[in-house]
Design goal:
90 residues; mainly beta; Immunoglobulin-like; three-stranded antiparallel sheet; 6 strands; 0% helix; flat
């Protein structure tokens, strides 16, 4: 789907099929692609493991003034918005 965006919370390693870096990461997928092109990074590892049984919180920001620019933040504490920040540009 060319005009699409998705956020992945991935706790299973699907490599080599989808180039997953590990079994505990987040990612922003654009244009129907679930894996990153050579030289691109659209995933980030998460620590501690998202399989720890705790509740996780996510914030996704999209900047429409910059073509297809999104950022994601993930935290195990609702008040902390800066734990993980990854940006994907295309």
């Amino acid at each position: 789907m060319t005009n699409s965006a998705a956020v992945e919370f991935d706790i299973y390693n699907n490599s080599p099929l989808y180039n997953d870096p590990n079994g505990n990461h987040v990612g922003i997928d654009a244009g129907g692609a679930f894996d990153s092109a050579p030289g691109e990074t659209n995933t980030a590892p998460v620590s501690p493991s998202m399989k720890n049984g705790n509740r996780w919180f996510a914030w996704i920001d999209y900047d429409g003034s910059v073509w297809r620019r999104a950022s994601m933040r993930l935290a195990s504490d609702r008040a902390c918005r800066t734990f993980r920040d990854r940006q994907y540009h295309q």
